[in-house]
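Bump. Still looking for Arylsulfatase structure tokens.
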Amino acid sequence: MDGHLATHVKSDLYAQTTGTPGAPSSTTTIDGNYIPNPQEPFGGTIELNNDKSRPFWPARVVPPKGAPNILLVMTDDTGYGAASTFGGVIPTPTLDRLAERGLRYTNFHSTALCSPSRAALLTGRNHHNVGFGNIAEASTGFPGYDAFMGRDAVSIGGILRANGYNTSWFGKNHNTPPWQESQIGPFDQWPTGQLFGFDYFYGFMGGDANQWQPNLFRNTTAIYPFRDNPGWNLITAEADDAIRQINMVKSIDPEQPFFVYLAPGATHAPHHPTKEWIEKISDMHLFDEGWNKLRETIYANQKRLGVIPEDAKLTPWPDGLKKWDELTDDEKKLFIRQVDVYAAYLAYCDHETGRVIKAIEDLGQLENTLVIYIVGDNGSSAEGSPIGTPNEVAQFNGVTPPVDVQLRDFYDLWGSDQTYPHMAVAWTWAFDTPFKWTKQIASHFGGIKQGMVMSWPARIKNVGGVRNQFHHFIDIVPTLLEASDIPAPRFAYGIEQKPMDGISMAYTWDDGPDDPSQRTVQYFEMFGNRAIYADGWFANTHPIVDPWALFSVPPTDVMNSYKWELYDLKNDWTQYTDLAEKMPDKLREMQELWIVEASKYHVFPLNNAVATRLVTPRPSVTAGHSRFVYTKPITGIPNGVEPLLLATSYKITAEIDVPEGGGNGMLFTQGGKFGGHGFYLLKGKPVYTWDLLDLDRVRWESSETLTPGKHTVEFEFTYDGLGMGTFAYNNLSGVGKPGEGVIRIDGKEVARKKMEKTIPITLAWDEAQDIGSDTLTGVNDADYQVPFTFDGTIEKITLDIERPTLSKEDIRKLEEAKASQGDKG
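Sorry for the wait, here they are.
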């Protein structure tokens, strides 16, 4: 035996960059084709004895030399004409400064909705191609709409991490299937899971969050930093945590580049800036002349800044929205308050983003940091109703408090933790100047045109200009990969990866503002609204329902119910002059191209439902179950996993041991202040409260006080309607109906009350189901303050659900109504 057991064979997957191979200090880049990269072969020698053997350490993976730090920022629900950098009146000095040392992009496009845009942004693939044809909460069982991004489309976080970056994510997610957001996972589609691949996450999982009391996570653990912390706000907390993470990375390893994805909840509802920012913006009197004058001001600013062409036309004001001079004084007062809070939210967010950029600068890292700041994941949101709402959850349930109620009960509270507010639609339309339409509308630029700035001092030298090339969210990942000299992987975790649908925008850093775009074709689709771009031409459908009419029931024959339009974007930047009648052959060519692209990227079947799609049955650990048993306190079961108790009969039975003094605390609750219900003891008396969207409360209270010891308390609710089953027929008639509730103690009835109306669609989504305490906001502030932990012992809580069953006669009537509705389409 010669004693030699192993030798090193150099793999083509590795390219040594620094240090002696096998030394503890050695580093390597990888070819990037595989995630994770195969283990580097042992390159030393092994003899029978250690003193004759030579060790070999696998090299530490680092990115290619010169790879930049990356800060990717994206605000939420922000129209093209909102920020000062793109002609708006809302001050965004951070974005302004970034534009001065970088480039403004005027022809950059989203998908018109939150989850889909984020899926496209993080994967470099079209949103239907990764299962996000709609938001996660409206997913359906088809490949383009199932909310599963797929292991064949690992995100930019996973790619960069595998190539030596430290990757972190702050703020909004909204790309994890809601039924996987509980404490039992699975966690592979969470930000730190295998699919997304981020090292660290600090943020919220759903579509929006209460910025004062969010359902907040660090990695996969719920945290509550706002408790006993007056003035805490998530916008500042995210910036603080991002600064902490950046400093930590550069303190531990100054050479390691970071990728920070900062995705604040601003300016999605609820609009929750701090009081100081509301006062600062209100004192500026930016909106006193109203939304029509605001539109004219933005339009003039945009021409002055060169972010729209000189010949671009301002699209007409829609017939369905009141002009400012048609409003009453009360309406004007309320609407100015609403928009001041919205503007404060954007300005506040921009300021906190500036703190993150300043921290990078203070570390001496800004020169080699690529900053991409995208203004909105879609256009400004019209989901606040024509008169706004103090509670967005109410609007999604078809309830809008009138102007006098909003003024009386919510004016001074607007933006505080006592509201979950959204502004009036006409402000939304103005913030999408100079375009038509809003968020949700993928057929028009008001829904899909986003301002964007890129800055990278070490690479982008021709600064301060604009770039007008047509691009899309799917082009960001290829841009980041080219900037860092990292290829898109061929395989990740053993699975072949889909090709990127996007192309790099790096060429624009050197080209002029109007040089040809390298993206020549892009399709769009959302809620049945469609469009196709091809070499300067744009064909699109015209919306058949307004995006703020969330409970509309449009004709289900999507392919044949919409009128098409045609625009020559080379001469018509704003979709002003429809050429469809003059150029039918060109329109037909564009329509056929849309069919080709839609077929390629899993866009079919088309579905234009809104509210009914939100309650479509989908996978869940609760699906198919009607009995749930809880034997210990448990908190934080998310909205997407808790058993739904809307439009149904149910009974909650709590077997408890009551302490001396009668007992206090929460037994069972879902939702919170802005829509929810709870069963609790208050000074020994069982109480049940239904919080009807913070606009009304129905409360049952026992006539008897519990004695110390073991008891069984029940709340039974009997619902009078047909239930969610009517939604299968595109019909809303089964929800929001009356019901009757009864409290019993040890089998004896102690309270009974009729509830004349019920919440039809959803509870507050940024809340949870809790057993034994209440973690976020409470359903009745007059009775208790969170966490209101039960001071006795819970032996067992049983929830029994008796969902309404449609009779043959019910089904016949619903089918007739559906057929009639289809005929009208």
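The two ends are 86 Å apart (CA to CA).

Edit: fixed formatting.
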